[in-house]
Amino acid sequence: MADRDLLPQNDFSRRIIHLDMDAFYASVEMRDRPELAGKAVVIARDPRKTGGHGVVATANYRARKYGVGSAMAAVQALKLIPARELVFVEPDFAKYRRVSGQVHDLMHELTDQIESVALDEAYLDVTRSKMPDKSPLQLASWLQERIFQDLRLTSSFGVSYNKFLAKMGSEYAKPFGRSYISPDRAQAFLDRQEIKNFPGIGKKTQERLQKEGVLTGGDLRAYGLDRLLKNFKKAGYYMALHAYGIDLSPVRASRQRKSLGKERTFEPVIYDQDRARAYLRDFSKTVAAELDQRQLLARVIILKLRDRNFKTITRRQMIQPSRDPDLFYQQAAELLDKEPEFLAEGIRLLGLSAGELEEAHYQEISLFADE
Ligand SMILES: [Mg+2]
């Protein structure tokens, strides 16, 4: 039996984008500090001030030309880069997180099915996107342009039918490029790739394979599943999967938001229980509709109260995963009943949120699994 038939089959109906920001931390610093133009920028604390300690978080492309890259000891940069070009910039992770959040806001305009791998890297499942008339490659272009125009940063994209190929594609497209690997072109693309470009093939494995004449993805296929399994065990199995472009792993959407809610301030304050409840009923409907639209379920209901004197509390009630407005209302009303002094003082602010959100999809799957 051919190796291909012994391995699992791809799901060709999926559309996955891999986004990778180009030299992210360095690019953010270069954007914000024009004096860095033309310099080899190394994001690390200056090893001359740290007694030689410290590691490179990232380096811009100019520094990379000298062989400096992530995870290298910062002192190495002193040896490799001419002093007149070299600039160390201390990393500012709070800033990178902020910018990453802005990139994520743009991603969410396409889909909420986003798996963040790092501040500068994410997978998006756009099999069903929020812009249905755009093709996956058009979605990637749209995102790349928005990131460039709005944030003045460059990014690279790979588009394909699984995460592995999407990532191979974005690596290939780097910097500031896009690639689309279609089912009929995947094998030819992989066959040409050097084995060092495949994930999970470390230096030692590379050397072993090279000794056996395996230099490319095509060689890896020719080497065969049998020998891969015999010589590399489980790692060999993954090499075979990758050589054939097989990857069934889903995009694991991180919770986009921890909670989703609605609140309102009252002036004059509310003393009337029925009125407070009417608002809670209204908030429940709004929040449930929003969850429904985003295909999310809540595991907790949170009531927020502020009284006339600005005393503020939040109260939480765990629930079975749900987006049922009646359940939300009932839970929130019970929480309100336990805090009678707020109505007595007068409620200035009332809020209801759904928290600990999860993908509705997983819930449906687990229901099936129980049968
Ligand atoms: Mg990157």
UniProtKB/TrEMBL annotation:
Any coiled-coil regions, as ranges: none
Main location: cytoplasm
Record keywords: Cytoplasm, DNA damage, DNA repair, DNA replication, DNA-binding, DNA-directed DNA polymerase, Magnesium, Metal-binding, Mutator protein, Nucleotidyltransferase, Transferase
Record domain UmuC: where: 16-202
Residues bound to Mg(2+): 20, 120
UniProt cofactor(s): Mg(2+)
E.C. code: 2.7.7.7
Subcellular location as annotated: Cytoplasm
Reactions performed catalytically: DNA(n) + a 2'-deoxyribonucleoside 5'-triphosphate = DNA(n+1) + diphosphate
SUPFAM superfamilies hit by this protein: DNA/RNA polymerases, Lesion bypass DNA polymerase (Y-family), little finger domain
Site feature: Substrate discrimination: 25
InterPro entries linked: DNA/RNA_pol_sf, DNA_pol_Y-fam_lit_finger_sf, DNA_pol_Y-fam_little_finger, DNA_polymerase-Y, DNApol_IV, Rev_trsase/Diguanyl_cyclase, UmuC
Taxonomy, superkingdom: Bacteria
Family the UniProt entry places it in: Belongs to the DNA polymerase type-Y family.
Alphabetized HAMAP family for the sequence: DNApol_IV
Record text on subunit structure and interactions: Monomer.
Role of this protein: Poorly processive, error-prone DNA polymerase involved in untargeted mutagenesis. Copies undamaged DNA at stalled replication forks, which arise in vivo from mismatched or misaligned primer ends. These misaligned primers can be extended by PolIV. Exhibits no 3'-5' exonuclease (proofreading) activity. May be involved in translesional synthesis, in conjunction with the beta clamp from PolIII.
NCBIfam families with a match to the protein in the record: PRK02406.1 (NF002677)
Record protein name field: DNA polymerase IV
Source organism of the structure: Lactobacillus nasalidis
